[in-house]
């Protein structure tokens, strides 16, 4: 869901300097408990010194969210929208020593042009829950999806983030770090930096509900579906366990034995289960279960789950001597729009299997859409292909 801060002792801190010069941008989703308290949400600074940048919820003084810069004397710009106690997106952009912007909720961007350079001294921590330079102005409330870039994000970028885009899909070439913060234990960012936590707890809610695809491919094993759908267990011998109640089997005429424990034994093939709302379709050989959108919990045999559209190479990647590039590690793929050439997403840390095949998924992909993909191996070798997503 998110991470909750108690306003007295809660803290997430990473020791070091994420960005040490202009430009840079900081984004987060915030849900403060009070709209009438001055509290620093997060930022970067020189602890014990006088240099810092931050997102500041100045509830009791101005009632606004601010982009805040301190270089021995502070300057800021206040949002047009007042501090809200519901989930809202906040983006602070530090374009230069004389150009800072705050985007908050649905309000118009506000710019501060006073001269302030807090990067003339190295910062030694990035912190959530209190002021970057001191243990004051502590934050009470929830935080999720924190990210920092070494670039100046735009109104378009903010609109995408506010609409639910994952931070790692926005200007990925300048993304320094992004932390999902779905729980108090989810503290490692997409680029490997891990927060040190003090007295944080799990937040009760999350700001964004993201729909995913409705096909889940798993190896033979147990698949548990939870949420608004029935519990179904699929094993290698095509045994499907269902709750007690009426069960209709369609798709072919299987031999059915309905025991007291409600276990249905069926041969391999397509099986549609109805009567438990919604229907679940099970195919035999590939153990593929298609379900409507919902919450899914997978258990047994560490199955592979594709909960976003994915790209799979239609044939093995090969070098210029037609040798399959097997078991490559540390590869990257740049996925471009075939019409505009714009970068859709960059995926790193990818691998090929023993046959040279590669697959990856991302929320920014659209299903059944052709993309121009540039494959880059760890060695620097590159290849180009147009691939349609699944």
Features of the shown structure:
390 residues; mainly beta; 3 domains; seven-stranded antiparallel β-sheet; 2% helix; 41% strand; elongated
Question: What are the SSEs and their pairings?
Answer:
Blueprint: E1 2-6, E2 11-15, E3 24-32, E4 38-45, E5 51-58, E6 64-71, E7 74-82, E8 88-96, E9 99-104, E10 110-112, E11 125-128, E12 140-149, H1 155-162, E13 175-179, E14 196-198, E15 201-203, E16 215-217, E17 223-225, E18 233-234, E19 239-241, E20 248-250, E21 263-265, E22 271-274, E23 280-282, E24 288-290, E25 296-298, E26 310-312, E27 331-337, E28 343-350, E29 359-361, E30 370-376, E31 382-388
Commentary on this structure:
There is one protein chain. The chain is an all-beta fold and 390 residues long. The protein folds into three domains: 202 residues, Jelly Rolls (Sandwich); 84 residues, no CATH class; 79 residues, Immunoglobulin-like, CATH 2.60.40. Helix content is 2%, strand content 41%. The strands form seven sheets. Strands 1, 3, 8, 9, 10, 12, 13 and 15 form an eight-stranded antiparallel beta sheet that branches. About 24% of the residues have low confidence.
């Amino acid at each position: 869901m998110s991470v909750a801060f108690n306003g007295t002792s809660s803290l997430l801190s990473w020791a070091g300097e994420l960005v040490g010069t202009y430009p840079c941008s900081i984004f987060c989703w915030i849900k403060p408990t009070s709209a009438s308290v001055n509290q620093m949400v997060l930022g970067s600074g020189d602890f014990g010194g006088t240099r810092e940048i931050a997102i500041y919820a100045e509830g009791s003084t101005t009632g606004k969210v601010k982009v805040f810069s301190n270089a021995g004397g502070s300057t800021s710009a206040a949002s047009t929208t007042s501090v809200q106690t519901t989930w809202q997106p906040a983006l602070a952009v530090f374009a230069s020593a004389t150009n800072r912007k705050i985007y908050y909720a649905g309000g118009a961007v506000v710019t501060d042009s006073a001269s302030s350079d807090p990067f003339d001294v190295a910062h030694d921590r990035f912190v959530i829950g209190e002021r970057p330079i001191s243990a004051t102005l502590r934050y009470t409330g929830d935080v999720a999806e924190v990210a920092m870039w070494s670039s100046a994000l735009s109104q378009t970028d903010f609109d995408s983030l506010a609409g639910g885009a994952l931070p790692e899909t926005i200007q990925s070439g300048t993304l320094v770090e992004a932390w999902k913060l779905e729980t108090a234990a989810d503290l490692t960012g997409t680029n490997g930096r891990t927060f040190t936590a003090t007295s944080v707890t799990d937040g009760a809610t999350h700001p964004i509900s993201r729909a995913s695809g409705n096909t889940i491919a798993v190896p033979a094993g147990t698949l548990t579906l939870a949420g608004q759908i029935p519990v179904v267990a699929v094993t290698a011998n095509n045994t499907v366990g269902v709750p007690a109640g009426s069960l209709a089997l369609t798709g072919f005429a299987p031999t059915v034995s309905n025991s007291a424990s409600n276990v249905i034994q069926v041969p391999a093939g397509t099986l549609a289960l109805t009567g438990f709302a919604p229907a679940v379709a099970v195919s035999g050989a590939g153990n593929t279960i298609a379900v409507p959108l919902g919450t899914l919990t997978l258990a047994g045999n560490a199955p592979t789950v594709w909960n976003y559209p994915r790209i799979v190479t239609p044939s093995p990647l090969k070098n210029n001597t037609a040798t399959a590039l097997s078991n490559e590690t540390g590869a990257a793929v740049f996925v471009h729009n075939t019409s505009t050439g714009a970068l859709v997403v960059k995926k790193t840390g990818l691998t090929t299997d023993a046959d040279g095949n590669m697959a990856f998924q991302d929320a920014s992909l659209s299903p059944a859409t052709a993309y121009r993909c540039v494959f880059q191996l760890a060695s620097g070798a590159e290849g180009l292909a147009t691939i349609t997503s699944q």
